[in-house]
Amino acid sequence: MSIGTFTFRPLDPLRDAELLHGWVTHPKAAFWMMQDARLQDVEREYMRIAADEHHHAHLGLHDGEPAFLMEKYDPRYVELAGLYEPEPGDVGMHFLVAPTDRPVHGFTRAVITAVMEELFADPETRRVVVEPDVGNKAVHALNEAVGFVPAREIDKPEKRALLSFCTREQFLRARGVTA
């Protein structure tokens, strides 16, 4: 059974702020750390990202409907600057699946797979870097399912994080694709 088609479009901070506000303040998005954000806070945060040449936000669409958020960043300048030794081709990533009353089995794994495919579609991307909260066991399992290997815990200003990496080869191997 196919879950559907995933596509991406650049996030429009003003047009999409209300939608995002509902997602980032939902109890299931606790690790996004915006539980108490007002609509204006969400607008301001995504305007800041839109103005940053090293950080980009994309709305993920499932069969044409908004279903998740993907952020792509250059870890040399954003999020991880000074916290690890970046390699050429490193790309940082965050993703958030929209809350739903009708969960579809395998949907979140399909989303992270689509996100990884999108990131690796750029031939310059050699390795994807993530830094989820150490307590976010669900995302650790998802990350490992698509090929991420935990490296070490690091202290960020807002959290203790599990620094993990996934090369193109590890991602393909996790998907059962041989080169």
Automatic annotation (TrEMBL):
Pathway stated in the Swiss-Prot or TrEMBL entry: Siderophore biosynthesis; mycobactin biosynthesis
A GO molecular function held by the record: N-acyltransferase activity
Domain Acyltransferase MbtK/IucB-like conserved: 9-56
Top-level lineage group: Bacteria
BP GO terms, sorted: siderophore biosynthetic process
InterPro entries: Acyl_CoA_acyltransferase, Acyltransferase_MbtK/IucB-like
Function: Acyltransferase required for the direct transfer of medium- to long-chain fatty acyl moieties from a carrier protein (MbtL) on to the epsilon-amino group of lysine residue in the mycobactin core.
Name under which the protein is recorded: Lysine N-acyltransferase MbtK
